[in-house]
Amino acid sequence: AKASDPRCTALMLCNPHNPVGRVWSADELRRLGDICIAHGVTILADEIHADFAYPGHDVTMFGTLGERYAGHCYEFTAPTKTFNIAGLLCSNVITVNPELKREFDVAAENIAGLTVSHFGLVACQAAYERAEPWLDALMGVLADNLSLLREFAERTPGLRLIEPEGTYLAWLDCRGLGFGSADELRDFMRDRARVYFDEGVLFGENGAGFERVNLACPKALLKQVLDNIAVALSQRA
Predict the structure, then answer these.
(1) Least packed by Cβ within 10 Å: which of 131, 180, 195, 207?
(2) The overall pTM is greater than 0.85
(3) Which residues does 207 contact at the CB level (< 8 Å), separation at least 6?
(4) Which domains does the chain have, with CATH numbers?
């Protein structure tokens, strides 16, 4: 119904999804693609977290679904999150459609052009060609941190982990803690637990009562964060 509205010309697809960590299946992506193609809606596929997929949840890049789908989308990727080089300013826009490429170039020129730093270009190539051991090690850290958060949620009444299929972010359901509003939950985390998360409500009204937890950190730091929350909850009780 949304795609059939003539005012709708593009759809933003996030795969894996940020913040809930959902990895869309190939069948789901084809169904989405069929709807958009039927109504002339261009797909903007944000796949910046595609390197972060947990076992059993392989990411299907939209452009690999077939020529029909690849020609109807822009894919956005980057080495910046995977290899921690965001400061070098390098990201990728991929399309096989010459007309979409032309439109993108015109839009980029209209905003004074898009440039890539020389350091970023070299770092991007080096990351993709030589840094797979880094990614393997990183996924091990994320798995350990996810286990730590999962165990904490299981033993803490009122908390529930939304099990992520991808990304290095965890969506933590705090609605069972009994706070009356998203503001009360935020104030508790910041003022009592001394913890600063991205509040779920930042991602829309349905996110009220959730916290987005960044797992891409040293395990000791995450443990300190969870210990702070545990102490603050015990004092609140």
Answers:
(1) 180
(2) yes
(3) 19, 199, 200, 201
(4) 10-130 (3.40.640.10), 133-236 (3.90.1150.10)
